[in-house]
Design goal:
394 residues; 20 helices; globular
Length: 394
C-alpha cells in the first residue's frame, strides 16, 4: 500500500503539474494518472487501497466541504436570495429531464432506466467547483453579487438532492413505488443536516473559546467530528445529509468567529494539497476506458444534450435578478463539472444487477472525462472576462 501511495502522490503531482504548465487544469492530469495506474491499465495500485478508495475519496470531499463552510459568509448568501435556493435543485431537475427525453431513443433504454442514468450524471462535483470558487472569493471575483458563494452552496446541496432521486429511481426499476416518499425525504435530509451542523458548530465555538489549544488540534477535532457525521448518515433512521452537516459546521464556526474560521481554513487548504491528489487519482482509477470506447457517439450526444438542459436550468434560476448576462454565462459554465458522485454511484446499478448497469457506468465514466476538464478549463478561461473584480479585502 505504501508503494501505491507513493505512486499516487508522485505521479499525480507530476502529471498535474505538467497539465497546469500547459494551461489545462491539474485535476485532468491527476485523473489520467489514476486511469494509467488503475486496474484497467497498468494495474499498479494495491488491491487494499482500491478497497478503501471510496473512503479516501470521501475524506477528501470532507476536507474541501469543511473549508467551504469555513469560508462561506451567510450574509453573502442572503444577498443572493432566491437564485441560491433554486440552484440547489432546478439545474439537476432539468438535466434529469433532458436525460429522460434523450437517452431512451439514443441508448435504447426505458424511461425509468433513463431516470436512473440522469440521477447518476446530474450531480455536480463540489470537489472540482469548491476549490475554484474559493480561489475566486479570495481574489475578489464576483464578490459584488456573491456569485462564487452561490455556486459553492448550490453545488453542495445539489448532491444531496440528486442522490435521493437516484435512490428513488433505482427503487422504481426494482418495482418499488416509493418515488413520492423519497422526494419527501429531500427537504428533511437537508434541514436535519444543516441544523445538526449549526448545533455542532456552535458547540465547537464554545469549546475553542473556553479551552486553549493549537489550531492543529482544532483541525483534528473538527475532522474527527466530520467523520462521525458522515458515518451517522449511514445508520440514521431519519433522513440526514452528513456532508451537508459537515459544511454547516464550518459555516457555524465562521459565523461565530471569523478569525478562528480563517485560521482553520488556511490549515484545511494545506490538507487539500494532498487530499486533491488522492481524490482525483482514485476517481481516475475507477474509470474503465473499455466501456467509454464501446459506448460510441450516442452516449456522448446524450451527455452533451443533457448538459444543455442543465445550463438552461441554471439560466432559469436567475430570471428576474440583477445578475448580468455575463455572470449568468459564467454560472452556466461553472455548474458543468462532474466527478465525485459519478465515481461513487456510477457502478451501483451494475452491482445491483440492473439491466442498464453497463450503460449507466459507461455514461458516468464519459461524463467525468468530458465535463470535469470542460468545466474546470471553462472556469479558468472565463472568470476574468465574465465576473466583476474588486479587491478581496474591500
Amino acid at each position: 500500500m505504501l508503494t501505491s501511495l507513493a505512486l499516487i502522490f508522485l505521479c499525480g503531482m507530476l502529471l498535474g503539474g505538467i497539465f497546469k504548465k500547459i494551461g489545462l487544469p491539474s485535476l485532468l492530469g491527476m485523473l489520467i494518472t489514476g486511469i494509467i495506474l488503475g486496474p484497467n491499465m497498468l494495474n499498479l495500485l494495491d488491491t487494499n487501497i482500491l478497497l478503501v478508495s471510496a473512503d479516501l475519496r470521501q475524506l477528501a470531499l470532507i476536507i474541501i466541504l469543511t473549508r467551504a463552510g469555513l469560508s462561506l459568509d451567510v450574509n453573502d448568501l442572503k444577498k443572493v436570495g432566491r437564485p441560491a435556493i433554486l440552484m440547489c435543485f432546478i439545474p439537476a431537475c432539468f438535466e434529469i429531464a433532458g436525460m429522460v427525453l434523450l437517452a431512451p431513443k439514443l441508448l435504447n433504454i426505458s424511461i425509468v432506466e433513463a431516470m436512473v442514468m440522469g440521477a447518476v450524471v446530474a450531480a455536480v462535483s463540489p470537489a472540482v467547483i469548491v476549490p475554484k470558487m474559493l480561489y475566486l472569493m479570495e481574489n475578489g471575483y464576483g464578490k459584488n453579487k456573491a456569485i462564487p458563494q452561490m455556486i459553492m452552496a448550490g453545488a453542495s446541496v445539489d448532491d444531496v438532492f440528486v442522490i435521493v432521486i437516484f435512490t428513488a429511481a433505482v427503487g422504481l426499476t426494482q418495482g418499488e413505488n416509493v418515488l413520492a416518499l423519497r422526494i419527501l425525504q429531500i427537504p428533511a435530509s437537508i434541514i436535519i443536516g444543516i441544523m445538526a451542523g449549526i448545533i455542532i458548530g456552535g458547540a465547537l465555538h464554545i469549546l475553542f473559546k473556553k479551552v486553549r489549544m493549537r489550531d492543529s488540534s482544532k483541525v483534528i477535532i473538527l475532522l474527527s467530528i466530520s467523520f462521525l457525521l458522515v458515518a451517522i448518515e449511514k445508520i440514521s433512521p431519519a433522513p440526514f445529509s452528513g456532508l451537508l452537516a459537515v459544511m454547516s459546521t464550518g459555516l457555524a464556526i465562521q459565523k461565530k468567529n471569523t478569525v478562528v474560521a480563517a485560521r482553520l481554513s488556511q490549515k484545511y487548504s494545506k490538507l487539500w494539497i494532498a487530499a486533491e491528489v488522492i481524490l482525483f487519482v482514485l476517481v481516475g482509477a475507477t474509470v474503465d476506458l473499455k466501456y467509454a470506447l464501446a459506448s460510441g457517439v450516442s452516449a456522448v450526444i446524450v451527455i452533451l444534450g443533457a448538459l444543455v438542459f442543465r445550463m438552461f436550468g441554471v439560466f432559469v434560476c436567475m430570471i428576474k435578478t440583477n445578475i448580468s448576462m455575463k455572470e449568468r454565462m459564467f454560472c452556466m459554465i461553472a455548474y458543468m463539472p462532474k466527478a465525485t458522485v459519478q465515481a461513487a454511484i456510477g457502478s451501483l446499478p451494475l452491482s445491483m444487477g440492473l439491466s442498464c448497469g453497463h450503460i449507466v457506468l459507461t455514461v458516468a465514466v464519459l461524463a467525468i472525462l468530458i465535463t470535469a476538464p470542460l468545466g474546470a478549463v471553462g472556469i479558468d478561461l472565463t472568470y476574468k472576462r465574465l465576473l466583476h473584480h474588486q479587491n478581496a479585502n474591500t
